[in-house]
Write a structure and sequence with these properties.
Blueprint: H1 3-19, H2 24-52, E1 54-56, E2 62-64
Antiparallel strand pairs: 1-2
């Protein structure tokens, strides 16, 4: 499963839960599955964020990247 598939599955779960007519036990299953998908997506984003924190310099080596905030 990739990030986009996980987000789509998570969105469907949210829509089902928002309908409000889901039996309690099924709602708990959806919730647990949603939490797993949420963790999966969060882990993917953290991984990408760590990759983005480094840029390749002119020598082809990775170096830390920081964003300068405007004053």
């Amino acid at each position: 499963m990739n990030f986009e598939e996980a987000m789509e599955a998570l969105q469907k779960i949210v829509e089902r839960l928002e309908e409000g007519d889901v039996p309690l036990e099924k709602a708990i299953e959806y919730y647990q599955e949603g939490m797993k998908l949420s963790k999966f997506c969060s882990d993917k984003l953290l991984h990408v964020e760590k990759q983005m924190e480094q840029i390749v310099n002119q020598k082809g080596e990775f170096e830390p990247f920081t964003i300068q905030e405007e004053k």
